[in-house]
Design brief:
5-stranded mixed beta sheet; alpha/beta
Length: about 220
């Protein structure tokens, strides 16, 4: 427990500093949660969601897992999405990947890591789906970056097919889906171009984003 004492000390100082900078912050925070954004990101410790986009606690609803995946049988992720859409009424769902993703690297290299291999199967399926394009890229580092980007676009398409999201669109609820990627080496975000606003533009927007990526 001694080794964790520093974290408690850090927490106390953070609370003091935050209240000093914005008196009443925690009282206000405790009374409501009203974010406009759901961030679905990677569990990687180098990708702190709130800090990247400069938002305070309470302004960004966050779900994280290995390689920012949206799997239709993952009740954890689906529950987060339902709460965000049906209760919090978020206006944007942002799937954010990052370059140098260990999950993507492990899937590409067919690494044997144990239980997580079952989770990474989804990324291997995406790799297989786009195998002809990916094999045309000789530089392995660039190939990895492209698969990382494709994975994000594919996950946004998965979000668009979830009944929770389609039901929201059917009742006229404002909800947009986005695909972003983060550069750990420079701290900057890039929009991958899948700004989906409803069932009517999901497939065409997905196809255009993939085609644009393949032209680069």
């Amino acid at each position: 427990m001694k080794s964790l004492a520093k974290l408690f000390d850090n927490n106390v100082q953070w609370a003091i500093d935050t209240e000093k900078q914005e008196p009443g912050f925690f009282k206000s925070l405790s009374e409501q949660q009203n974010p406009e954004y759901l961030w679905i990101g990677c569990a990687d410790s180098r990708v702190p969601a709130n800090e990247i986009v400069g938002l305070k606690p309470g302004e960004l609803f966050v779900h994280r897992n290995v390689a920012n995946s949206v799997v239709h049988t993952d009740l954890n992720c689906l529950s987060v999405i339902q709460y965000a859409v049906d209760v919090l009424k978020v206006k944007h769902i942002i799937v954010t990947g990052h370059y140098g993703c260990g999950g993507v690297q492990a899937a590409m290299n067919n690494a044997k890591l144990g239980l997580i291999d079952n989770w990474l199967r989804h990324i291997k399926d995406i790799q297989y789906k786009h195998k002809h394009y990916l094999k045309s890229i000789d530089d392995l580092a660039i190939r990895e970056d492209r698969l990382t980007e494709i994975n994000v676009i594919e996950q946004v398409m998965n979000v668009s097919q979830i009944s929770i999201v389609q039901d929201a669109w059917a009742r006229g609820q404002e909800l947009q889906l986005h695909s972003w990627i983060y550069g750990v080496n420079d701290g900057k975000l890039k929009d991958l171009g899948t700004n989906i606003t409803g069932t009517h533009d999901a497939v065409i927007t997905y196809q255009q984003a993939i085609e644009k990526l393949m032209r680069n």
